[in-house]
Amino acid sequence: MSSTSSRAGWPSSTSFSRTSPPRLTDLAVWRYRSYASDLPWARDKLRDLLDEDHTRVPDPEYVLSLYWVTAGPWAGETYDTALRLLSTPSVLVDRSAPDGPAPLDGTVEESLLATGFDHPDIVSFGVRGVSTSYAGWSGVAYASHSHERSLTIAEPVACELTVQVLWCFTGHVQQMVEDGQDPSMPEQYGWRFLRAGASRLTTARAQETAQHVLMREAIMKTSGLAERLRAAQEALRESVG
């Protein structure tokens, strides 16, 4: 299997790597073990990018992966199941193992590929004959079947970065509310900024493809960002009276 993975901690920071793991389980374990290096990397990158007191820079909390699958040993329904597993890798990993995330017995992956796998939080945004693609809480998996008609890798990356930035921003507002503060932001980043961000992610554009619309909708639904945007806008409106 070959894939290109975009790894990012909430908040927005991205690195890319190419990997050809022998099994989905190996990729899933690598993904969880990457927390140890990716979260500090994302924190340091944010501190480099943000020209302010580093003590106020939020620490990344999570690693979300984007898998751009270019080749694999699967076919038919098994191919579809493999992409679903990529978007929900936790079912292949023992995350509570004493020495850190460890692979489950290989028969788990074999069984899931043979019998199929589904999860209520997985949303498909694939188009028959064009792509097989799924979004989940843990990440996004995309495999193109038609180069001319499929999304470019830049499109899901750009969407994910926008979602992650706003997810982090709304999380910062939420934390201030939970700490008993009246959240405040510079005027240019107040509730109107969040309203604009929500519009960009939820409103179709005149020349936007149907597949791009499906991608945005799937990522928005699985990230839970829409609810966070509404809550943060309301909190910032109240804070300005």
What does this structure look like?
There is one protein chain. The protein is α+β, with helices and mostly antiparallel strands and 241 residues long. 46% of the residues lie in helices and 17% in strands. It is built from 8 helices and 8 strands; from the N terminus they run E-E-H-H-E-H-E-E-H-E-E-E-H-H-H-H. Strands 2-1-3-8-7-6 form a 6-stranded mixed β-sheet, sandwiched between helices. Strands 4-5 form a two-stranded antiparallel ribbon. It is globular and about 55 Å long. 34% of the residues are buried.
**Biggest sheet, open or closed, and with what strands and sense?**
6 strands, mixed
* Proportion in β-strands: 15-25%
Helices and strands, in order, run as EEHHEHEEHEEEHHHH
Helix content: 40-55%
Radius of gyration: 19 Å
Shape: globular
Structural class: alpha+beta
Q: Tell me, rounded to a whole number, the average pLDDT.
A: 87
Intertermini distance: 55 Å
Are there runs of 5+ residues with pLDDT below 50, and where? Answer: 1-15
List the helices and strands and how they pair.
Elements: E1 2-10, E2 15-19, H1 24-33, H2 35-49, E3 62-71, H3 77-87, E4 93-94, E5 102-103, H4 106-115, E6 123-124, E7 131-135, E8 139-144, H5 154-178, H6 191-202, H7 210-223, H8 225-239
Parallel strand pairs: 3-8
Antiparallel strand pairs: 1-2, 1-3, 4-5, 6-7, 7-8
Helix pairs in contact: 5-7, 5-8, 6-8
